[in-house]
Design goal:
The protein has about 290 residues and is α/β, with parallel strands linked by helices. It has seven helices and 15 strands. The strands form three sheets. A seven-stranded mixed sheet has the order 10-9-8-7-11-12-15, with helices on both faces. Strands 4-3-6-1-2-5 form a six-stranded antiparallel sheet. The protein has a two-stranded antiparallel ribbon with strand order 13-14.
Amino acid sequence: MTSLVERRRPTPPAPTDPMRPVPYRLEHLRQETRDTYTLELAPVDGEPLRYGAGQFTMLDAFGVGEVPISISGDPTRAGLLEHTIRDVGAVTHALVSASPGDVLGVRGPFGTTWDVTDGQGGDVVLVAGGIGLAPVRPALLELLTHRERYNRVVLLYGARTPEDILFGEDLRSWAKDFGVDVDITVDNGQHAWRGKVGLVTQLVPRAGFDARHTLALVCGPEGMMRYVAQALVDRGVPPYRVRLSMERSMKCGIGLCGHCQLRELFVCVDGPVLTYDRLAPLLTCREL
């Protein structure tokens, strides 16, 4: 017979279902560029999400669909969950069209991290193309929280046009207040633009860092990452010290659907952050 004490014992909470979205309320929507927005989300119930720099969530616009979005906030500080999203499809359009107070779904966090602490005692180079600066931002914020543990920090950033440059205030603050070597180039600079014009790969040979003692973090279109990674290796950075964040389309986040398969890899669980020595033979193969 079950005792009264046993019957009153609270039932242990069920394990979190990785396929069940957790409701988050949109607290603030900030426009970054003409087509890119940052959403700041707070959990409807429970604690804020804990995550590592480089991880992503599956973000759900109820009734429309869900998409994988890298977290763009500061992993060292508890607070609102930030996602920076470019308006390019039905789901992303629904997400950036949400109003403060609306509820969205969040699954995750998923995937591997940048593991920026591996760069302690040396230089760290971050290379981003376009919206790729959003997944890189948490890594940089983590670096700056412990700035004294790293030597030179270099950010090389390429955008399509001056109007497409993300996080303008952050870029200025990182350079002025934290001594980050920020170098920016655009594909198409017109009128008042007085900065560099060209591919971000062209910034690598001239950047100041000790290649043999450098950790390099790269995010952007796959073609851009392949050429940047090779330029870093040509410069002397060991391939295993070059990390790329893959942007293959992910659907489930837990390696079930196979949608993000890259030969033997499932990007959602083996990545998105992977070392170049592991990716190099795959990035040069067609139809993978």
